[in-house]
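Hey L., structure's done. Input below.
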Amino acid sequence: MARTVIKLGSSIVAEPSGAVRAGVLARVCDHVAERHGAGDDVVVVTSGAIARGMQVMQLGVRPTAIEDLQAASAVGQGKLYRVYDELLREHGITSAQVLLTFFDMSARTHYLNARQTLRRLLDWRVVPVINENDTTTTDEISFGDNDFLAAQVAILIGADRLILLTDTDGLFTADPRTDPGAELVAEVTDFEGLTRLDIGHTTSPLGSGGMRSKVVAAEMATAAGIPAVICNGLDEAALATVLAGGDAGTRFPAQPARYSSFKLWLRYAKPSHGTVVVDAGAARALRDGGTSLLPVGIVDVRGGFDAGDAVHVRAGEAVIGKGICNYSAGELRQVMGMKSAQVREVLPRATEEAVHRDYFVLV
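Output:
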């Protein structure tokens, strides 16, 4: 039995006019039903609620004001889910609509609750159809066309693979719509090597993502040991080929160095509220020794944060990691650079570690 997350971007779900691509969704649901019938668990992550709302309300272009986006999503969300529900019901499959927000991923308790709910739905042999709750999201806190959401869901449920469907054949060396010399990248094993490629943020008129967000989503999944594929959801054969174990699009094999689910949540989902700058010795100990960060190694504190918030850890201007701080910004400014005995004199109840190694992840 395999557990698969299939993500459909706005350009797959809707025509440029905003009308639902009924034939494409029917084909995807056919494949979902086939894998479900074979005993696999399948989760669908879909974009397109705003596009559907735009079409219903006859909006010519995608709105830019957050309240307009939220209202369009409210109009389109239920209508979009109904399409999936009816298509899956034709195969005798029960589906469930699940709406998540960035807060659900960033707050640890909500994160664990979401995982429990999704796992129970899968235990019941229900196909979750997940979308971001755009009616309550903000322009500062959102998932890039649900690419990050799909990766987080894959990590949440311990998926065996993540398939990201888009309107191109995969990742290219440049944007194939503007560069005729662009070549398809068949496999990516070195994400740092992608920096030399022209991977842009170009999106469809209806979407908010782009290839860059899909590559980051693939990196997130593979860091958890989950292989990912970016392929063309408009190609009638691509999804079937990938589900059957064949090659289509761009493959991202699972990375050998696997993080715990907690550290993946910390790295990708929990927002940072400030920055702690450390000296060279502390940076070396964090990178190479896997040690905790003590106040003595801190040379600067930037921003305002409370104890329990996540902070970025920098050496100079280079970010080396992210961790949950045991001190507020004000407390840390009082004791930075001090040895443990001195810290206890200033803050008698303070813990020895500013950031414990169990709550720190290298980035």
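The longest strand covers residues 272-278. Residues 201-208 have pLDDT under 50 and may be disordered.

-- N.
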